[in-house]
């Protein structure tokens, strides 16, 4: 009689995941089959070979500590080489540690599969290890918040173990449980990302990041491979991603500007691109001479969203505005905005400035608390930056209660400029192989301190009062950290 046992599997896209396998070396033949089974399913789910890291330990008893260290190590590694948006311009595979590639060479692990084979012997050894290891592995995943897949066989006989690795000696070869663990890892990694970002959508099929953006560069021709073209390949898409606030993933697809690429991309890749999208940022070139075609692609993308992600927000970015003569910019922009508004139909198109609020549900709350913090520090202004990208996520002068009298006289473009300056400085540090931690500036007009606020943010405090010491500002930041970790905890950090 066939068995009803076993998981029902959903399909998830593992292409943006980094996964570790930690295995024991006891009972080698069985271990090897299980590890191979897990790897095969990880790859089938789209996890790239370079994002599968395999480590071994002597026996199963060593698994929990090894998993815990591997998780922590990858998080430290990721933090010290945090990539930024500027890194997107680095060629994929560049050795520059600041480059962002889809291979996630230093991303933290999204899941760990612990594989061991315990076979009952003559003593109580087996019982103790089974019990301890299963409890400890559970503790590692609960303590770290990273899924640890329980790939430890606890078999009473050799045959039981062999059958569970799909290499049974009798009539029944059995089923390789390593395959199930590979799939479980991809599913749990994906779902945990989503849950951490407050996304509880019903993932029955496919695609998977917590928040997926799809900026389609309709009018941005990118290089394409002539040989592939000759062979009739129709897709030339550069995919990249950026981590934002730890758990949010910004997926970037830079599509070929040529119609053939675009057409094929919007048909064959449709469900992959538009499923589970939280936000679509569509980039229009203000200089484009083919507005009719651009709008056609844009409408096609809106259709894709209606089909696969009805609740997604759409943001439009009109770029290359700096190429328009200064006196004409406002009129050109208004014209473009009206055109795009018309093309957007029922989709509510939001202003760029509200992207942050869409991504970070408690951004408003952060603004309010930054305001309180600014008052406590007697600061002219306090700005909260996302750690990896240095994008501004909250400021003390952007709460609902209109800008304060003092700050509204400041340059409205200061956030953008500050962000660019810090990114440039951080890049210089990385070129010099120096880690960037904090920054202090003491000038005649003001003192500015940039320091870590939470594990995903940096804060900049600008004080005009010369009596206030830099050390006092730093102490205030230290004291505020716990509160800001709490404020972000609900939505930003797993
Ligand atoms: N008996 C099995 C072991 N025993 C070794 C322990 O796991 C451990 O390595 C040792 O006690 C040193 O700390 N390991 C297995 O993986 N499977 C067994 O059946
Ligand atoms: C160190 C061991 O693994 C050993 O003492 C276990 O013995 P058994 O598997 O016969 O209980």
Automatic annotation (TrEMBL):
GO cellular component terms attached to this protein's record: fungal-type vacuole membrane; Gtr1-Gtr2 GTPase complex; nucleus; riboflavin synthase complex
Known partners and oligomeric status: Component of the GSE complex.
Pathway given in the UniProt record: Cofactor biosynthesis; riboflavin biosynthesis; riboflavin from 2-hydroxy-3-oxobutyl phosphate and 5-amino-6-(D-ribitylamino)uracil: step 1/2
Record-stated family: Belongs to the DMRL synthase family. Belongs to the GTR/RAG GTP-binding protein family.
Protein name: GTP-binding protein
Keyword annotations of the record: Coiled coil, GTP-binding, Nucleotide-binding, Riboflavin biosynthesis, Transferase
Protein's organism: Boletus reticuloceps
Molecular function via GO: 6,7-dimethyl-8-ribityllumazine synthase activity; GTP binding; GTPase activity
Gene Ontology BP terms: cellular response to starvation; negative regulation of autophagy; positive regulation of TORC1 signaling; riboflavin biosynthetic process
Domain of life, source organism: Eukaryota
Catalysed transformations (reactions): (2S)-2-hydroxy-3-oxobutyl phosphate + 5-amino-6-(D-ribitylamino)uracil = 6,7-dimethyl-8-(1-D-ribityl)lumazine + phosphate + 2 H2O + H(+)
Species lineage: Eukaryota, Fungi, Dikarya, Basidiomycota, Agaricomycotina
Any Pfam family hit: Gtr1_RagA
Coiled coil: 415-442
Free-text function comment from the UniProt entry: GTPase involved in activation of the TORC1 signaling pathway, which promotes growth and represses autophagy in nutrient-rich conditions.
Family annotation (SUPFAM superfamilies): Lumazine synthase (SSF52121), P-loop containing nucleoside triphosphate hydrolases (SSF52540)
């Amino acid at each position: 009689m066939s068995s009803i046992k076993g998981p029902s599997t959903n399909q998830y896209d593992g292409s943006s995941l980094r996964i570790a396998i930690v295995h024991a070396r006891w009972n080698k033949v069985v271990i090897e089959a299980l590890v191979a089974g897990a790897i095969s399913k990880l790859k089938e789910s789209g996890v790239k070979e370079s994002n599968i890291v395999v480590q071994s330990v002597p026996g199963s008893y060593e698994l929990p500590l090894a998993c815990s260290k591997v998780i922590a190590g990858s998080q430290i590694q990721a933090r010290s080489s945090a990539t930024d948006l500027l890194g997107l311009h680095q060629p994929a595979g560049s050795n520059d540690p600041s480059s962002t590639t889809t291979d996630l060479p230093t991303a933290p692990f999204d899941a760990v599969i612990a594989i061991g084979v315990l076979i009952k012997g003559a003593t109580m050894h087996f019982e103790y290890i089974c019990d301890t290891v299963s409890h400890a592995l559970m503790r590692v995943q609960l303590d770290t918040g990273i899924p640890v897949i329980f790939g430890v066989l606890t078999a009473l006989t050799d045959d039981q173990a062999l059958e569970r690795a799909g290499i049974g000696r009798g009539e029944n070869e059995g089923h390789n449980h390593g395959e199930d663990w590979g799939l479980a890892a991809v599913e749990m990694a994906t779902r945990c990302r989503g849950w951490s970002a407050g996304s509880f959508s019903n993932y029955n099929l496919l695609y998977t990041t917590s928040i997926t953006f799809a900026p389609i560069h309709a009018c941005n021709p990118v290089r394409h491979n002539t040989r592939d073209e000759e062979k009739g390949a129709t897709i030339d898409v550069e995919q990249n991603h950026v981590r934002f606030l730890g758990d949010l993933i910004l997926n970037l697809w830079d599509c070929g500007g040529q119609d053939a690429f675009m057409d094929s991309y919007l048909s064959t890749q449709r469900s992959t691109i538009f499923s589970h999208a939280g936000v679509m940022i569509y980039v229009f070139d203000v200089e484009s001479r083919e507005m009719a075609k651009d709008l056609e692609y844009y409408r096609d993308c809106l259709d894709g969203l209606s089909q696969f992600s009805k609740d997604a927000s759409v943001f439009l970015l009109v770029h290359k505005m700096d190429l328009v003569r200064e006196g004409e910019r406002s009129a050109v922009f208004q014209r473009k905005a009206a055109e795009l508004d018309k093309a957007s139909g029922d989709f509510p198109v939001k202003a760029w400035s509200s992207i942050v609020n869409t991504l970070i549900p408690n951004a408003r709350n952060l603004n309010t608390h930054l305001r309180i913090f600014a008052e406590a520090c007697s600061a002219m202004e306090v700005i909260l930056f996302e750690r990896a990208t240095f994008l501004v996520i909250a400021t003390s002068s952007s709460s609902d209660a209109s800008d304060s009298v003092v700050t509204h006289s400041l340059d409205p473009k200061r956030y953008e400029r500050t962000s660019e300056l810090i990114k440039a400085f951080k890049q210089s540090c990385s070129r010099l192989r120096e880690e960037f931690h904090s920054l202090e500036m003491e000038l005649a007009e003001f003192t500015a301190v940039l320091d870590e606020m939470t594990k995903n943010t940096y804060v900049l405090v600008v004080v005009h009062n010369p009596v206030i010491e830099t050390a006092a500002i730093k102490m205030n930041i230290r004291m505020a950290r716990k509160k800001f970790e709490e404020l972000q905890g609900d939505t930003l950090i797993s």
